[in-house]
């Protein structure tokens, strides 16, 4: 592999990671596939490219491609990459959990809202959260004056110490 192709592969890899993190999964797949073709897939860097490509495939909804590539990565020569691939394969092959509709919150689609339409402002006003009530839900109590606190000795500590000594004495006597 030439130095130019390695630099191009690194640039594509970084661009693919950045696109993935921005949520542009289609671009991420394109960049990462390009990097995969330019790099030795049995190298550590090639394994990293493939791991990112698996996650990009999954994010794009190409589950079969993600599973196939992940199975290859789980047999990678590098131990760390192989472990990552195995863990990722375990996650991808796990059964899908179903969620009840009442557990989910529906978010209205606001893409159709324009800038200056009166109807849009009315719709946005109905979606806006209600105003907070004037009275706070939690209110701190007034600070207590330390001079009003009863600090007289009520002999509780002496009774507790005496009871503790009696219990320990009884335990020692039975032994």
Automatic annotation (TrEMBL):
Top-rank taxon, per record: Bacteria
InterPro entries, alphabetized: TPR-like_helical_dom_sf (IPR011990)
Annotated keywords: Membrane, Transmembrane, Transmembrane helix
Entry annotated with the keyword Transmembrane: yes
Parts of the chain that traverse the membrane: 156-174
Keyword Ligase in annotation: no
Full protein name: Tetratricopeptide repeat protein
